[in-house]
Amino acid sequence: HVGADADVTIIDPLERWVVDPQQFRSQSGNTPLRGRELVGRARQVIVSGELRVDRAPQTRGRLAVSRAEQG
Asked: Which residue in 6, 31, 49, 57 has the most C-beta neighbors within 10 A?
């Protein structure tokens, strides 16, 4: 729909993390992935123009550099 707010997910395709159901926003802790290391994670989620998830690094006014660029 023209003029509607976009839903956007910004990901870090290189981030490694371990699934921990205690960190879920859901009250359900059921997952077959508990304890597994995964690669790739959502950093920010914007829904209808509102920031809903923010795991982005704090840059303090500097350009954030990805892990791939850091070497």
From this structure: 31
Cα separation, 51 vs 6, whole angstroms: 11
pLDDT digits (tens, 9 = 90+) for 27-57: 888 899 999 999 999 999 999 888 988 887 7
Q: Is the pTM of this model over 0.90?
A: no
8-18 sheet: strands from edge to edge: 8-18, 37-47, 50-54
CA 51 – CA 44 distance, rounded (Å): 7
Q: What is the DSSP string of 9-63?
A: EEEEEEEEEE--GGG-SSS----TTTT-EEEEEEEEEEETTEEEEE-PPP-TTSP
